[in-house]
Design goal:
Layout lengths: L1 H11 L8 E6 L1 E5 L5 E6 L8 E6 L15 E3 H4 L7 H22 L2 H11 L1 H10 L11 E6 L11 H12 L10 E2 L6 E2 L44 H15 L10 E3 L5 E6 L5 H9 L5 H9 L14 E9 L4 E10 H15 L11 H8 L11 H11 L5 H11 L8 H17 L21 H20 L6 H11 L1 H18 L7 H12 L11 H18 L26
Parallel strand pairs: 2-6
Antiparallel strand pairs: 1-4, 2-3, 5-6, 7-8, 9-10, 10-11, 11-12
Helix pairs in contact: 1-7, 3-4, 10-12, 10-14, 11-14, 13-14, 13-19, 14-19, 15-16, 15-17, 15-18, 15-19, 16-17
Length: 588
């Protein structure tokens, strides 16, 4: 089903309208005259440094140390014999490329093909002049080159009609030794010859830099009944080239993102997605899960962070998503998803609703931002597939793993980084809130509010609020100090409150006494009211993981209320102290 969906995408996007050609980046055009004389090296880079992308003859699959030349288009090792450290292999590559050019010139007589053949006759004597025209002065061998004829500069030599016709015939020819038994294509259902090998998928994490195959029978142990390679899972050439072209287009790099329509899943996988019909949903999904850093784009998302995700009639458009990783030889499919867009939107609303928390900056909490917030300062301590699990939760509606709750709480116990701490704290507590709502014991029975809940009387929540009030009292009494009670006691207070809070409350009395006359007493009043809500109960000696999460939410809610103007934040519960709390606390 996945290959079929990719082939449909290739046809819809017109990626295989010209099956013998594909789009590739060309770094330089080599201009020659009719005699093969080199006239100039023409760079194609734009002002942004991006090479020109044009249609070139479909590139052959390369594997191992063999020499498989392209057709009138290849890298500098094959065209000029330069780059790298293996000069002998470079010469073999050039000879293989030249052999194909000579065949073309002899069989077509096309003046462009003949000019390129003559160029190779003079290559050695012209090589120094060619190499000197490189803008950077040094050739790596990875530069991609195509040819243009001096009197026909509007098109490349490979675009000339006789050359295209020759290439089409070559592409249709059955390689020597291949089975000519017709088979039914597993993708299209049509009867024809199966593609013996499938082209490589590029840019998959952990795969070879040259790419790796998604479908491959590359050893005798994988074949049966006398079938060779791809004949064991028959896919027509058109379908094989279609799905590969479509997948490579999804994995292409963009100006602002690593993948044009995908999200990196840690260091070893990528999730790519698309829809059966054209829809802006995939772009909106990218903006939500992986917000770009461009300020204008961020501002646009702040206006409508999840445009297209609002409640609407059920959208039955098919949505596809596949998670890929690589190894030394193959591309591995880790996960495949096919659901209606409407269901994905519903799952996303649930996911972002669970992450919703007061104090948001209006930008969607991207997966990478969430994970960076709960990483330890050394960057270790997180499961390598945690990013995959978070994205699954967003798209599939699966629960946020308990592991996220543990990691976020573990990070809160460490002293905070002063730089961007408020933003990081928001991300950590948003994850804690979402993870709590997905715990089996909590689903449907308990609620975690977006902002401060004055009616919540659960002890862990009240203790978290109390800790925030004690921290505020210390700040008002001592100002900016090197180590606050949060730096020293947050972990112990959230896990063993019965041991720590009596000491902190005694300390807060000294802090209250130091607060100068006329200072807003809101923190002291809040502290008294929270202690009153605890109703004199003995503080628990320990809190389990879920209760520690609720403690963190209570702490965040109360802390946020201190930094919110009272006209917007929590109001006093009675009019008794209204005159005492009418002023706005200082901004953080």
């Amino acid at each position: 089903m996945m290959l079929s969906a990719l082939y449909e995408l290739a046809k819809r996007k017109n990626l295989v309208d010209d099956p013998d050609f594909e789009k590739k980046k060309v770094d330089f055009f080599i201009r020659v005259d009719l005699t093969g004389r080199f006239l100039g090296l023409v760079p194609t880079q734009s002002s942004e440094g991006r090479a020109l992308e044009i249609k070139v003859p479909r590139f052959p699959k390369r594997a191992g140390s063999g020499t498989v030349p392209g057709f009138l288009f290849d890298n500098a090792k094959y065209v000029l014999g330069v780059g790298g450290e293996d000069a002998e292999r470079n010469e073999r590559c050039v000879e293989a490329f030249r052999t194909e050019v000579d065949k073309l010139a002899q069989q077509t007589g096309d003046e462009g093909a003949v000019a390129v053949a003559r160029f190779f006759e003079k290559r050695q004597e012209q090589l120094a002049e060619i190499l000197a025209q490189h803008p950077d002065g040094a050739w790596t061998g990875g530069e991609w080159l195509a040819f243009k004829l001096d009197n026909d500069e509007e098109r490349c030599v490979h675009d000339r009609p006789d050359v295209r016709a020759y290439w089409a015939v070559q592409r249709q020819a059955k390689p020597e030794g291949e089975n000519d038994l017709p088979v039914r294509c597993l993708v299209t259902g049509e009867v024809g010859l199966a593609a013996r090998t499938h082209d490589n998928i590029k840019r998959v994490p952990q795969a070879q830099t040259s790419g790796a195959a998604l479908v491959s029978f590359n050893a005798a142990a994988f074949v049966s009944h006398g079938l060779q390679q791809g004949e064991n899972a028959p896919v027509s050439r058109a379908a094989a080239e279609g799905y590969v072209t479509a997948l490579n287009s999804l994995l292409e790099g963009g100006a602002k993102r690593r993948f044009s329509q995908g999200i990196a899943m840690g260091d070893d996988a990528v999730l790519v997605f698309w829809t059966r019909e054209d829809t802006p949903f995939c772009d909106d999904l990218l903006d939500a899960l992986d917000p770009v850093a461009d300020p204008e784009a961020v501002r646009e998302m702040v206006k409508s962070p999840l445009k297209g995700l609002e409640p609407a009639p059920i959208d039955t458009t098919h949505f596809y998503a596949v998670t890929l990783s690589g190894n030394a030889a193959l591309v591995v499919v880790r996960d495949w998803m096919e659901v209606p867009v409407g269901q994905v939107k519903q799952n996303l609303r649930r996911y972002f609703g669970a992450l919703s928390l007061a104090g948001s900056d209006g930008q969607p909490l991207g997966v990478r931002r969430l994970l960076s917030a709960i990483e330890t300062p050394s960057g270790s301590g997180l499961s390598p597939n945690l990013e995959t699990k978070l994205v699954r939760s967003a798209l599939y509606g699966s629960p946020i793993p308990r592991e996220v709750l543990s990691a976020a709480l573990r990070r809160l116990r460490l002293p905070p980084h002063k730089l961007d701490e408020r933003r990081q704290l928001h991300a950590r507590c948003a994850l804690i809130k979402a993870a709590l709502m997905d715990l089996p014991d909590w689903k449907g029975t308990k609620e975690v509010t977006v902002a401060l809940d004055e009616n919540n009387t659960e002890t862990p929540y009240l203790l978290g609020r109390l800790f925030a009030a004690l921290e505020r009292l210390q700040a008002e009494a001592q100002g900016d100090i090197n180590a606050t009670i949060r730096d020293k006691f947050f972990g112990a207070a959230s896990s063993t409150p019965g041991l720590i809070f009596p000491r902190l409350i005694r300390l807060s009395m000294h802090h209250a006494a130091k607060i100068r006359e006329g200072k807003d007493p809101f923190a002291e009043i809040t502290k008294a009211r929270i202690i009153e809500k605890l109703q004199g109960e003995a503080l628990p000696n320990t809190l389990n993981l879920a209760d520690q999460g609720l403690f963190a939410i209570g702490y965040y809610h109360q802390r946020q209320a201190f930094f919110t103007p009272k006209s917007e934040g929590a109001k006093p519960e009675s009019d008794k102290h209204e005159s005492e709390t009418s002023s706005t606390p200082e901004a953080e």
